[in-house]
Design a protein that fits this description.
9 helices, globular, alpha+beta, single chain, 4 strands
């Protein structure tokens, strides 16, 4: 497999985590988003959205969108699973993952921040205020959801979660960890999020998350 990737892309980071959790080897192909390499015809002509990540499978198919890629990996390499076996638990995990991937991330990715600055002429302070507002609001909602799920697990006689759901990494953790990395990079206030940050810290104790982080990427820039 080949992973087309940018070290700072949180969507790419999600896929790297999934690959590491499943112990899958792949060729790392850097695509520098800031330099616009994703717009080069050789890459852009192969994908409708010309974004990263993209995963080229062993048989040559090119897959787009991190969430679809991770679920493909989970279906084709089911151990260890990134979604629980129970339908209700799977829905909870997908909801947590989508709170990050569909609610927080789209408002604050590189394309949006560039548009604010270049097209709308927003200054750096206003751009940072935009980022901080939406990330913080989204993470507060994530924290509330974790609290609700903790109560639901308790009512069902399940132990409290160490990660986002239970004791094993799931799709939700693959999404949460990159978002926290980005929040830290932009100096977002992460106080008052005890469950969220506990799940993040527990994930970062696992070798797969450490190996997937931006500083471990061959295209990493300080």
């Amino acid at each position: 497999m080949k992973l087309y990737n940018y070290f700072r892309s949180s969507a790419s980071f999600r896929v790297r985590i999934a690959l590491q959790l499943k112990g899958l080897s792949y060729d790392y192909v850097p695509v520098h988003l800031v330099k616009g390499e994703q717009l080069a015809p050789a890459y852009a002509s192969r994908l409708g959205d010309a974004l990263v990540p993209a995963l080229q499978t062993d048989d040559g198919h090119l897959l787009a969108q991190s969430m679809a890629i991770i679920e493909y990996l989970d279906e084709t390499h089911p151990a260890p699973p990134l979604l629980p076996g129970d339908a209700l638990a799977r829905a909870h995990v997908r909801a947590l993952a989508q709170m990050v991937a569909c609610e927080i991330h789209p408002l604050n990715n590189l394309r949006v921040l560039k548009y604010l600055k270049r097209e709308l002429r927003v200054d750096d302070a206003a751009k940072d205020a935009w980022y901080h507002h939406w990330v913080r609001q989204g993470l507060e909602a994530f924290e509330r959801q974790l609290a609700l799920l903790e109560c639901e697990r308790g009512d069902a006689g399940l132990a409290p979660s160490r990660l986002c759901w239970g004791e094993q990494p799931t799709l939700a953790d693959c999404c949460l960890v990159p978002q926290i990395f980005n929040a830290q990079r932009f100096n977002v206030d992460l106080g008052g999020l005890p469950r969220t940050m506990a799940a993040f810290q527990a994930c970062m104790q696992l070798p797969a998350f450490q190996r997937a982080q931006p500083s471990a990427c061959p295209d990493h820039e300080g």
